[in-house]
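Hey, resending since the last one bounced:
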Amino acid sequence: MFGTTKAFSGFSVNDIAAAKKFYGETLGLRVSEEHGLLTLRIAGGTDILVYPKANHAPATFTILNFPVEDIDTAVDELVTRGVRFERYPQIKTDEKGVSREEGPPIAWFTDPAGNILSVLQL
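The structure tokens again:
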């Protein structure tokens, strides 16, 4: 039924203006706003809807993963842009906040609404 439908994902935030600034300026994504909603234009033609929700609760899981060629370069650049990387007690990370133990190197951070994002080296 939906085999030819171009589906898209979405998530909520509590402040559209803060989200627009973060995703557009800090992360450098193409962002458009229409009718109080944001659309993140991700490489490859994927769009992600960001919508306001008054009683927003941050996702407790990673909602977006950004693959990068060099995680150390990406983490360093994000830090210069004001991003703070998360440290989880159950996951061993290095001084930059990168987990290199299991799977690909990955580091987690949050958007202004507290939603969890990651950069990972593939």
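The chain has a mean pLDDT of 95.

Sorry for the duplicate.
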